[in-house]
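Next up, a chain.

===
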Amino acid sequence: MIDVRHPRREASAFVPPDHEARVLEPSPPANQDPAWFADDPTDPGEASAVVTPVPGEGTTWGELAEADDEAAAHARDHWLDGRRPLEGIPDGYDLTRRSLHQLAFFALAPKRHVAIGKLGLRYTHRGFGTPFFVGPSGDDEQVRVEGGVLVHQAGDHVRSADITTLKDATGFLGLEYREQWFDAFHDPLSPLGSSTRLEVDAAAADAVGAWFGFATHVLERFRRSGAADISRVQLWPEHFDPAMEAGSNDLGQRASYGASPGDDAHPEPYLYISAWGEVDRSDTFWNGATFNGAILGHAQLHDSADPYATALEFYEAGLERLTR
């Protein structure tokens, strides 16, 4: 059964009464900031005390989890405490990842774009989806994939559908299928077609969602690195990856820092740093064979004693090289 989601309110049940919860997932109400039309999930705002996944902003979920088993279970399930291990890649992962990419680009992002002109997605519990936005009815809406199921939430109502084809998915969301919704991208996704069967295995879909949860936790922590001109973390539908940007473009230091769930060149997930300017290719750190940057693969993170620390060290090492 799929429930109505309010991630911040759900998390509030596990924090001390004088604290506010901060999470990694979008929460209602819909944000009206014209630059983003999306909430900043870890921002402490004007709260006097918060429980947060980001060290340095208040009490961390990790600290709370040490003293409260129920809080620990919630934090683990939602990638809040930086302790949940990365699991292996299940069978059917690559085919599921490709199908979910099609769904993100041709169904979920268009639903938000039609309503407010924004197309960025985010990590959501067991998957990915839109930030909350104001729909035609005036309700706060979200469309998401949760455990391999397509979900549409509007106000206090939620409905779900199995993932079959893009035509079925767009119809469920009240859209007509189109192969082009947005202005031209540098590298738009090639469409499979409206009636091609999307193959989505539930375990593999959970693995995609788990990768997005892990990556969002790491990126939100890295966003507090102090680098210049840091952007928000968004999951871009054309690349199907959570990413952010940091560093001065004028000084040739800017780069995209992200976490791909896999692509044609790399069938398993990997972290990446994609520099906007030149990099020193004599430095073996810059090992990206198909782009101007560096990668750190899922296998290296999976084998690490602390994959979160390893991931942060990778991003910080790239930032240091670009800004020194």
